[in-house]
Amino acid sequence: MTTPGGAPAVLDAVRELLPTLRERAQETEDARRVPEENIKGLQDTGFFRLLQPRRYEGLEASPVDFYRGVRLISSACGSTGWVSSVLGVHPWQLAIYDDRAQQEVWGDDPATLVSSSYAPMGRATAVEGGFQFSGRWSFSSGCDHAQWVFLGGLVMGDEGTPVDFRTFLLPRADYEIEDVWDTIGLRGTGSNDIIVKDVFVPEYRTLSFMDTGRCFGPGQEVNDAPLYKLPFASVFSCSIAVPILGMAQGAYDAYVGWTKERVRASTGGKAADDSFNQIRIAESAAQLDAAAMQIERNIDEELAYVERGDKIPMALRVRVRRDQVNATAAGIASVDRLFESAGGRALRAGTPIQRFWRDAHAGRVHAINDPEKVRVMFGQFELGIKVQDAWL
């Protein structure tokens, strides 16, 4: 059922869960997947329903509230934060699908989760009523906790050339999960491979990237809240950046606590008295605050346009992407700044600073966090050069 008290109550419940998530962080990493107890705990807070339609017991909250929750979770456990963001943003996307697809996923159990892998690794051929679909995808974070999956694929024409790029929604019975996830960062995300072998996907369980690019989806007929008229690229790309801000905050909290108690072996002096450590703390805190505020400002502005019934200007959409990759860069810079002065003991396995450092850098290599491509795109737009990109 919908959480009483709405988004504020959900965020309060998430805060209460943080000590438990923090205690399980090493267990999560060792298991190479998020524990069921973490997912169940987050389900109980109502977190996964923040962006879900009210018709299916969701809250229809602002993405800003969702991102704040992701940052909190990621500050306790980077892998749990990453998985919670990916699984938690998918109800927003499912809400713009045909309602028949929504009913199949949530009709019997509104707590059903969906994982994803959006790279167009699948190949689809149009048949009567839908598509025959096959492929193999990597990096489906949290897939072991999901009963459905979003998969990217190219629709092939008669001459063997792509004619469309779609996201296909498949139930668990239609795909295999291969356990291949063994990494140095985000080890606990269980981002395994998905394999699909020639299955039929009805057309209503697909969505063209051309439609999402113009902020359209058939689900808007039944889910008419402004939330569901935002650009997919804005909502999803920020959901990949904010976990890194949360991990950086976790590293910051660990560093501050560590520095208060640390005594330098070489001098016997207190690390807290070192003015350079004090400067690093101030710079990192300011950088993280500014990055989070930029993301929240941009999403609030997009929502304001939609609520007025106005089209979101392209200038704002490219700014969202610019600030999204800048937030990722800010998180990495903050983690690096703190880690490099944390001392040799911070290198020990099991310590939080080194784990946040590895997790943040692992999240940075996600394709949507690539700063150069997005900054070029922003510069082109400012210079009056036409920008064409599916992730706008």
Fraction in beta strands: 15-25%
Tell me about the largest β-sheet: 7 strands, mixed
Question: Could you state the CATH homologous superfamily of the largest domain?
Answer: Butyryl-CoA Dehydrogenase, subunit A, domain 3
Helix content: 40-55%
Helix-strand category: alpha+beta
Mean pLDDT: 96
CATH structural fold name of the largest domain: Butyryl-CoA Dehydrogenase, subunit A, domain 3
- List low-pLDDT spans: none
User: Total number of β-strand segments?
Assistant: 7
Order of adjacent strands in the largest pleated sheet? 5-6-2-1-3-4-7
The gyration radius over C-alpha positions equals 21 Å
The CATH class assignment of the largest domain is: Mainly Alpha
CATH architecture of the largest domain: Up-down Bundle
From the spread of the alpha carbons, the general shape counts as globular
- Tell me the distance between the termini: 34 Å
Question: Explain this structure to me?
Answer:
- The protein has twelve helices and seven strands.
- With 392 residues, it is of the alpha+beta class.
- It has three domains: 6-109, Acyl-CoA dehydrogenase/oxidase, N-terminal domain (Butyryl-Coa Dehydrogenase, subunit A, domain 1); 114-208, Butyryl-CoA Dehydrogenase, subunit A, domain 2, CATH 2.40.110; 230-382, Butyryl-CoA Dehydrogenase, subunit A, domain 3 (Up-down Bundle), CATH 1.20.140.10.
- A seven-stranded mixed beta sheet has the order 5-6-2-1-3-4-7.
- Helix 4 (63-76) packs parallel to helix 8 and helix 10 runs antiparallel to helix 11 (352-364).
- The longest helix is centred in the C-terminal third of the chain and has 33 residues, at 275-307.
